[in-house]
Write a structure and sequence with these properties.
Distance between the termini: 25 Å
Order of helices and strands: HHHHHHHHHHHHHH
Low-confidence stretches: 1-18
Mean pLDDT: 83
Structural class: mainly alpha
Helix content: over 70%
Shape: globular
Radius of gyration: 20 Å
Number of helices: 14
Length: 337
Amino acid sequence: MTSTDTVTVAGSPPSTTSGAPTRGERLLEVVQRQGAFAVLVLVVVVASIGSPGFATVGNVTSVLVGNAYPALLALGMTFVIISGGIDLSVGSVFALGGVLAAYGAGHGGPIVAIVLPLAVCTAFGLVQGLLVARAGMAPFIVTLAGLLGARGLLQAISHEGQNTYQVPAGSWFATLGAGTWAPVVTVVLLFALGAVLLQRTPFGHNVFAVGGNANAAMLLGVPVRRTRTLVYVLSAALAGGAGMLNAARLTSGVTEIGVGYELTAIAVTVIGGTLLAGGAGSILGTAAGVLLLAVIQNLIGHYISQYGSSASAAVNGAFLAVVVLLQTYLSRARRIT
């Protein structure tokens, strides 16, 4: 059974009486899933022609490396949103993972620096997942509390931000994030594994089914509660792992990092074609969304740098609003077709 089959069984409206999608529906689905990639290619081509400095090795490297580890938050967010949930805690968990990694490197060595953030952040995601799946609490409320809780925990560890823990000089832990292309290679490998997990495993099929129609999925024997729990565990583990790797690259645990990352992760996931209502999305689309937003922000830095982060925030918000409106239109069009 493919993921598409699962979504249809889970309650997506059939396209025709025979169940076969029409040509119009196939076109709308392609636009929804591959639209971000097509726009990315168009923007890159136009930017390369119009801005001589855009396609240089230095600029491309800056774009890829600068967005590598935050992209892992979007990878986890893809699973959560496809399942019909939301995770507002990933930015804080990202920062918490970095602080715990730097703390562990200085107080217990490289192994502790790896195990400590992964264990704590994974446990954090497990608690959130259980509250959503078992206690029936709203994901927005649970993960908003998680955002505040993770940020409060890292503030306590760092004594209200007064202590910035450093990775000891010469520690092999720092080599995990060293080099120009190490972050990019790591992210590419994890995205590839994420794509296999989502598209080629029973767990991935269950994620689509739960997001498409949880009640129908439960009647068909899909472990809805377990699936919902695991997507939050996966999201928190990826966020904590990204924070850990980022601390290795920076050789310190920065307490103020990650603010607003959860909104960016949601934005690029939705831009990549994942429906906020759940039940549809892809890892490739999320990767395209990450790169598209990164390229746009890079162009903003080139042409309207005097406006700083305010311009990036305005463009992010406007771009996300347009994408959500387009998704709403496509969803309605598919139902009508």
